Amino acid sequence: MVTISLAAILLSLTQVFAGEADVVDAGGRMGADGTWRFDVTVRHDDAGWDHYADKWDIVGPDGTVYGERVLLHPHDNEQPFTRSLGGVHIPDSIDTVTVRAHDSVHGYGGKTLEVDLDALR
After folding, report:
1. Percent helix, strand and coil across the chain, each to the nearest 5
2. CA 80 to CA 43: how far, in whole Å?
3. CB 113: neighbour CB atoms within 10 A?
4. Degrees to nearest 5, angle at CA 88 with 87 and 90
5. CATH for 2-120?
6. Measured distance CA(21)–CA(95) in Å, rounded
7. Are the CB atoms for 42 and 23 separated by under 8 Å?
8. 54-70, pLDDT tens digit by residue?
């Protein structure tokens, strides 16, 4: 009984100490069709399937989510890692977006980055 309890405590501590997912780099470019492609680098101390960075998204100033990249597996041995998302429709009236990452334990809350779309148009 003590062994099982100790194992449960250690597992929960591992999940807590892995921390939140941070966006460490983000860039974008507008395609000829007017949609955007974003390349986003995330850092998170993934700890297997129990605690890993599971998505990132592109959010407008009013909270509208314009794009979401779901991450289908942990990246325990690939940190930081970069993934891309294309075909993102963002109105021309939007000047900046925020890129935020999400993990399976803490949700959102790590470091975000703001991308100045005007500078990339």
Report:
1. 15, 45, 40
2. 4
3. 17
4. 140
5. 2.60.40.730
6. 25
7. yes
8. 999 999 999 999 999 99
